[in-house]
Structure formats: structure tokens, C-alpha cells
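task queued by scheduler; priority normal; single chain, no ligands, no partner chains; default sampling; output format set to C-alpha cells
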Amino acid sequence: MAIRNRFSELLPEITAWRRDIHENPELLFETHRTSQFVADRLAEFGCDEIVTGIGRTGVVALIKGRSDSKGKVVGLRADMDALPIEEATGLPYASKTPGVMHACGHDGHTAMLLGAAKYLAETRNFDGTVAVIFQPAEEGGGGGLEMCKDGMMERFGIDEVYGMHNWPGRPIGTFAIRPGPFFAATDTFEIVMEGKGGHAAKPNETVDSIVMAAQ
């Protein structure tokens, strides 16, 4: 069966998963319900190995290909956590948790990867092994780093990892990719400035540390 036709058949189920996750958003590492939802679906698909609690609430499952050759272990990664935002969309599947919303699309990422896992588990038309990785705490908690510190890469022998992010501004049915850094990221830093005070009426005689810092 053609890949496109099979995913078309899976679309209603994937949509239902996404809306369930959207209704029940969780923050940072507190993705207990979402992690359990993911693990339950992976078990239904017949994944070869499912491990929970990696990086606190992360989930990893292995799906082995048909070939007898070992091949590579390729990771496919999605994030599961939501944001501390009050939802005001009025959607029938809007967040049921006050002050928490899937405003960055991680509900979609999780549902997409579940759909890929179901397809891969039922077809297994590839060499090597696929590791599907469901990460908590992408929104500032460093969940990916915690999963790596927990030995995820070594434990499953993962050779490389791929991830993607929804982008509503792109035309439907297209995707974009480029080498190197792709998006900006937030970070924290400290700088020390030494200015020169003076009278508010004569700013020309001062050295404004705010202007210096902005530069």
C-alpha cells in the first residue's frame, strides 16, 4: 500500500490523538498523562521495546526493521510539553487545564510521531532500527539534555536523531530544511557595565549604561 494512502487512512486517528493531548496539556517534566498516553499507544502498535522514565518522564520505543542486517539506529524525536498560557481559542477540544495550553504545537508533534511509529511498526520496510523519542520539557526545561544524561543515546545505540517542527506559515504539503542552526533560541547571560551619572537635564555629560547595554 502506498505510504500516502496509508497515512490518509491514519489521519482521523492521528487527529484524535492530537486533540486528546491538546485538551490535557502538561508543563515541563510533569508530562505524566501524556507519557502514559504515548506508552499505551506504542504498546498497541507492537513496538519491540518501550522504556519510560528516561530523563524523568521521557519515553523511547524501538521498532526493528525486516532486514537481518543490524544497520543503523535512527532516532525520530518529538516534544510533549505545553506552555503556561491561558487558551482562549474557543475550540471544542480546547485545554481543560487553566493556564496551560499547547500553544507551540507539541501536541501535533507527538501525534505525528505516534502516526509514524504505527506505520513503521506495521510495515517494517526498512533496515536497522528506529528509536521513537518522546521528550518532556522542551520549553525551557532542557528535557533533551536530561534524556541524554540518562544514557539514552548509549543505551539504545542511537547513531543519529531527526526532529521537525510544525510551521503554520508554510504551504500545506511542503517542508523546509537547511544545514546548520535553524531557529533562534532563548538563553541567559550577565554583563557588567560601568557608566557615569549626572543631572537629568544634562545627559550629554553622562555615560548611559542602559544605552551601552543595549548596544
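post-processing summary
- The two ends are 58 Å apart (CA to CA).
- The first strand starts at residue 49 and ends at 54.
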